[in-house]
Design a protein that fits this description.
Strand content: 15-25%
Structural class: alpha/beta
Number of helices: 2
Number of strands: 8
Distance between the termini: 20 Å
Shape: globular
Radius of gyration: 17 Å
Strand order of the largest sheet: 1-6-4-5
Order of helices and strands: EEEEHEEHEE
């Protein structure tokens, strides 16, 4: 079993200038979340590069980033694939399965002027080709070899809870 999540594909970047929303000329920054497993991470980076996905950030929240800090959490529905979530497993089911989650900022999505002309077909095609390849990876991989790994420690912050602000979870393996 695995999870594939896709939100906000093909978006262009806009910013407010003098009270007007104007195109920046860039694709919107988007994230591709992946579980902590070297095979997952390598497959993800390879797919992003081979399909020409622009302004993509591959993140594995269950491991430190390249400078040792915490990586961006998955805020989309793909968080269900995790062992623990910022929302708490009592709200979301924590499946602890291999997964890929695509998410962009929904900024243009929520405007009153978000017509199809504000999306980029090339970016959409690059993202869907990437996610199709990664879905095939999940379908054909040996599930034991792609089991997510947590590493030494992983903290999941749970805002709005009266319990401690973050739970530290050790990898049981």
């Amino acid at each position: 079993m695995g999870v594939v999540q896709l939100d906000h594909l093909g978006e262009l970047d806009y910013s407010e200038v003098d009270g007007h929303v104007e195109a920046t000329g860039l694709n919107e920054q988007s994230y591709l979340w992946v579980r902590n497993n070297p095979l997952h991470i390598d497959a993800t980076i390879t797919a992003v590069k081979s399909h020409g996905w622009r302004r993509a950030q591959v993140v594995a929240p269950e491991r430190p980033g390249i400078h040792g800090g915490r990586q961006e959490l998955c805020w989309g529905i793909g968080v269900n694939a995790s062992r623990s979530t910022p929302y708490g497993c009592d709200v979301w089911h924590c499946l602890d399965v291999p997964a890929f989650g695509l998410g962009g900022f929904p900024g243009n999505y929520y405007t009153i002027h978000s017509g199809i002309d504000r999306w980029d077909v090339r970016q959409f095609l690059a993202q869907t080709a990437t996610m199709t390849e990664l879905t095939g990876f999940l379908m054909t991989a040996d599930l034991k070899k792609i089991r997510p790994k947590l590493g030494e420690r992983y903290a999941v912050c749970r805002p709005g809870r009266r319990s401690p602000a973050c739970l530290a979870i050790a990898d049981p393996a």
